[in-house]
From TrEMBL:
Keywords: FAD, Flavoprotein, Mitochondrion, NADP, Oxidoreductase. It is an enzyme of class 1 (oxidoreductase). Its EC number is 1.18.1.6. One of its GO terms (molecular function) is oxidoreductase activity. Gene3D superfamilies: FAD/NAD(P)-binding domain, NAD(P)-binding Rossmann-like Domain. It comes from the Eukaryota. Residues 34-233 form the FAD/NAD(P)-binding domain. The keyword Flavoprotein applies. This is NADPH:adrenodoxin oxidoreductase, mitochondrial. PANTHER family: GLUTAMATE SYNTHASE 1 [NADH], CHLOROPLASTIC-LIKE.
């Protein structure tokens, strides 16, 4: 009751004061609404952009806090090096970061350097947009013990942009000509493309020199992607499939029998993206029959199989798969068919395994309501359960799926919800916070951690870009955190 009364009286007061500040055209020094966004990936940046647009009559400051010394999340550490057009969003993000009311504070690990609750001393609104950083496990024999079995997250971290902790992964690509990728999503296709692409093409991207050297020695010629469901349930998208079908010197080897069940009537009932994807898959099956030439390298899709165990003495030599089949159930659409295993076991030989079965988020602070099963923050319409003033955005709020464009659309809705809550007095952290980001930076400093500003990052950015240019690449990434800190030093 008491809180309710305070809420009704104080917040309009705060807003009114802010509004009057805005109309008298003065700076935001006295009482802006202080917002903090944890995570500098697409969700964090697009949300900032939308908050700036929607809060024009409410003086607002937005601090983006990032645990890495560098910004951009998976755009830097996930998106494949041969997708430079996707990485171009970094230019948009730079404009956002350089807005006068926005501040980037890197190298601050929320949940370690600073607790979540402590953020309330500096901010009225906290949005958690810290992504999904852990890969799911299969929990089957050989997964953790055999060499050359990797999670896609680690493999991507190694080849792609050198996530510092994966820089030393060193997959042995010269000891086998067969790789199996477990999973049929876009990340699985990214890994297949990197394994099958020509070195000359990869050398023009921002792939690390270290990864390029190992890929140069690669003997991999056959890449098989295995999924536990069928061709109508794959989770990759048409762009990634098309890229794989167009690789020079690489042939697709899809099995016609896997597609016999799909007729025109089924295709016509699908939503447009799935319809176009299925049509391309069918076209790809047929293309195989009209091109009998021996290919340098090949990729295969094997459906209705679930891994049961990895075999080998010290390094993986094969995988046992159990066959699966759809469970007939009218309450599920074709795309969401559940499966059950049957008794058939098949052993597929391979010397490299990449498990690409999805990412999930982690609870960064025990105070945060969390769904450990789904790996997301407990929330209703992005408002975190029982934590007024706390919101979530991006993969950590809705689960690790979807491309950047989905995050863009979602962030507009979330920004509207936050502004609506501010305008309707639904915040309860009502203190007149004077220090905001400055206070946070002082606290971080007192804990012997150096914050990285956007200006600091730009020094590292220039260094990486220049290093890349000298090698004919858009960028050569620095892998070592200590080196990153040195290069961003004031
Ligand atoms: P992230 O991008 O993961 O950003 C989260 C940020 O939070 C990170 O910077 C992280 O360091 C930071 N953080 C984490 N914990 C903390 C903490 N405790 N304190 C402070 N900061 C923290 N989409 C496309 O459109 N095209 C593609 O080609 C494409 N390729 C992809 C390839 C891979 C391998 C993956 C995994 C995804 C790809 N995606 C692609 C999807 C896209 O990357 C996601 O949709 C998007 O990055 C999700 O944004 P996010 O901000 O929620 O998470």
């Amino acid at each position: 009751m008491f809180t309710h009364v305070i809420r009704r009286t104080f917040i309009p007061c705060l807003i009114q004061r802010s509004l009057s500040i805005a109309t008298t055209n003065s700076t935001l020094s006295s009482s802006p609404i202080r917002i903090c966004i944890v995570g500098s990936g697409p969700a964090g940046f697009y949300l900032t952009q939308n908050l700036l647009k929607l809060s024009q009559t409410i003086p607002t400051t937005i601090d983006i806090i990032e645990k890495a010394p560098v910004p951009f999340g998976l755009v830097r550490y996930g998106v494949a090096p041969d997708h430079p057009e996707v990485k171009n969003v970094m230019h948009t993000f730079t404009k956002i970061a350089e807005h006068e009311n926005v501040r980037f504070i890197g190298n601050v690990h929320i949940g370690k350097t600073i607790g979540l609750k402590e953020l309330q001393d500096f901010y009225h609104v906290v949005v958690l947009a810290y992504g999904s950083s852990v890969e799911r496990s299969l929990n089957i024999p050989g997964e953790k013990t055999l060499a050359n079995v990797f999670s896609a997250k680690d493999f991507v971290g190694w080849y792609n942009v050198g996530v510092p902790e994966n820089a030393e992964l060193r997959p042995q690509l010269d000891r086998t000509d067969r790789a199996v990728i477990v999973g049929m999503g876009n990340v699985a296709l990214d890994c297949a493309r990197i394994l099958l692409s020509s070195i000359d093409d990869l050398a023009k991207t921002d792939i690390t020199d270290q990864a390029l050297d190992i890929l140069r020695q690669s003997r991999i010629r056959h890449v098989t992607l295995v999924g536990r469901r069928g061709p109508m349930q794959v989770s990759f998208t048409i762009k990634e499939l098309r890229e794989l079908t167009k690789l020079t010197g690489v042939q697709s080897r899809l099995n016609q029998e896997d597609f016999n069940r799909i007729d025109q009537n089924m295709i016509d009932k699908l939503e447009r993206p799935r319809k176009r994807l299925t049509e391309l898959l069918l076209k790809t099956v047929q293309a195989k029959h009209s091109n009998e030439k021996v290919a340098e390298r090949c990729w295969y899709l094997k459906f209705w199989r679930r891994p049961k165990q990895f075999n080998g003495k010290t390094t993986v030599e094969s995988i046992d798969f159990e066959h699966t089949q759809p469970v007939a159930n009218r309450s599920f659409s074709e795309e969401n068919l559940p499966v059950q295993q049957n008794q058939t076991i098949e052993t597929i030989p391979c010397g490299l395994v990449i498990k690409s079965i999805g990412y999930q988020g982690i609870q960064i602070d025990p105070w945060l309501p969390f769904d450990h099963e789904r790996g997301i923050i407990l929330n209703r319409q992005n408002r975190i359960d029982d934590r007024p003033g706390f919101y979530c955005a991006g993969w950590i709020g809705r689960g690790a799926r979807g491309v950047i464009a989905e995050t863009t659309t979602e962030s507009h809705t979330i920004a509207k919800r936050i502004i609506d809550d501010i305008e309707h007095g639904r915040l309860i952290n009502l203190r007149d916070i004077k220090s905001g980001g400055d206070g946070l930076v002082s606290l971080v400093k007192s804990r012997q951690v150096r914050c990285i500003s956007y200006e600091d990052w730009k020094k590292l950015d220039a260094h990486e870009t220049n290093l890349g240019l000298s090698k004919g690449k858009p960028r050569e990434k620095i892998l070592n955190i200590q080196k990153m800190l040195e290069l961003t030093a004031p």
